Amino acid sequence: MNSITVVISILAVTALLTLYRVIIGPTAWDRIIAVNLISSKVVCIMVVSALLFRRTIYMDVALVYAVIGFVSTIAISKYLEREGRRDK
Amino acid sequence: MIANFFIFFGLIFFFFGTVGIIRFPDIYTRLQASSKCDGAGTVALFAGLIIREGFNTFSLRILIIIFFLLLTNPVSTHAIARSVAIRKIKPWRKEEKE
Predict the structure, then answer these.
(1) Is residue A47 within 8 angstroms of chain B, CB to CB?
(2) I want to staple B3 with a disulfide (CB 3.0 to 4.6 A). Which of A24, A25, B18, B52 is the partner?
(3) Hey, where are the domains in chain A?
(4) Which of A67, A5, A11, A13 is nearest to A42 (CA)?
(5) Which site among A39, A44, A65 would you substitute to test the B interface, given the most B Cβ atoms closer than 10 Å to its Cβ?
(6) What string of pLDDT tens digits covers the 88 residues of chain A?
(7) Predicted ipTM?
(8) Is the CB of A39 inside 8 Å of chain B's CB atoms?
């Protein structure tokens, strides 16, 4: 058992534990926070698995995934800030 | 040795951030735990991977990802906190004894 495999499995277990907050979170912001955390953990898993399989292209996938997570977090929080209205 | 120390440090941060996000009682406190996990955990883990790898194309790309994450994680945390504060959600307080 490689040490990189241990790192990937620990990250996956913590991502699964974070999913608990996504499911039971009382408000929408709790779910956004937990999804943001899960996306950063998935970026870490992608980078570590790129080192495991020696493929450089997984790094690009991780970078694009980070960009998409950032844009979605900003968009949903701006939407909740205006309570769904277009004005202001 | 040093690389394993950094990776272990990052995993410790991830674990306690996850425990904080499950256990804390409020949006603001959960946001704090999540931002520590995002900032310190990922950067420590990636620094350990760079030291383990040496200087090649992998470590250069990890550096680019570190730069991007250091730019975007505080911005997204601040956007969530701003939207919670504008909607006037009260911070959690300990209930008084009756």
Answers:
(1) yes
(2) B52
(3) 3-81
(4) A11
(5) A44
(6) 678 889 999 999 999 999 999 998 788 889 999 999 999 999 999 999 998 888 889 899 999 999 999 999 999 998 888 876 766 5
(7) 0.87
(8) no
